Amino acid sequence: MRLLRSTDLALRVLMRLAVAGDSTPTTREVAEVMDVPYTHAAKVVAELQHMGLLTARRGRGGGLGVTEDGRTASVGAVIRAFEGEGDVVDCDGGTAVSPCPLRSACRLRGALRTAQEAFFASLDPLTVEDIVTSPTGPLLLGLTPKQ
């Protein structure tokens, strides 16, 4: 299973903010450190704020901060929120794909769903705090924007 770029960025933003201490980096600063486009980071930050996992203050003295809910958020739950609950494969066909001719008798879809749930279940017990312990936390604090 491959995560969407937004899911990956959401986890990295939460991780970075979880070790930020009293500093409140801006979305632009986080985007630069993570080496991602500002617009992409802004969308992810907005969604994380909507989920109650971070705070964002505008203007002078503003910036981003992780909430207590963000620190204790389940990694599996964050991934589910960004990835959605859909199947790994689209057997019914999307806008550009015809339905799979095997869908009425295929066992692969169920096996993939079981594997997907096992993936999420293995990440459910992990919190953002858990994944920023040493050596990850100090590494996150040492990240600087690319020159």
How is this structure best described in words?
- This protein has 147 residues and is mainly α.
- Helix content is 51%, strand content 5%.
- The protein has helices spanning 5-18, 27-34, 38-50, 68-71, 75-83, 108-123, 128-131, 136-142, and strands at 54-57, 63-66.
- The protein has a two-stranded antiparallel ribbon with strand order 1-2.
- A hairpin with a 5-residue loop joins strand 1 (54-57) and strand 2.
- Helix 2 (27-34) packs across helix 3.
- The longest helix has 16 residues, at 108-123.
- The protein is elongated.
- 20% of the residues are buried.
**What is the count of β-strands?**
2
Instruction: Tell me the span between the first and last alpha carbons.
Output: 32 Å
| Number of helices in the DSSP assignment | 8
Question: Which regions are unreliable across 5 or more consecutive residues at pLDDT < 50?
Answer: none
> Which of globular, elongated, flat, extended, rod-shaped describes the shape?
elongated
Assembly classification: single chain
Question: What's the SSE pattern?
Answer: HHHEEHHHHH
Proportion of residues in β-strands: 5-15%
Q: Biggest β-sheet, characterized?
A: 2 strands, antiparallel
Cα-based radius of gyration, to the nearest Å: 18 Å
Chain-averaged pLDDT: 88
Strand arrangement, major sheet: 1-2
Structural class given helices, strands, pairing? mainly alpha
Helix content: 40-55%
Question: Which helices and strands occur, and which strands form pairs?
Answer:
Blueprint: H1 5-18, H2 27-34, H3 38-50, E1 54-57, E2 63-66, H4 68-71, H5 75-83, H6 108-123, H7 128-131, H8 136-142
Antiparallel strand pairs: 1-2
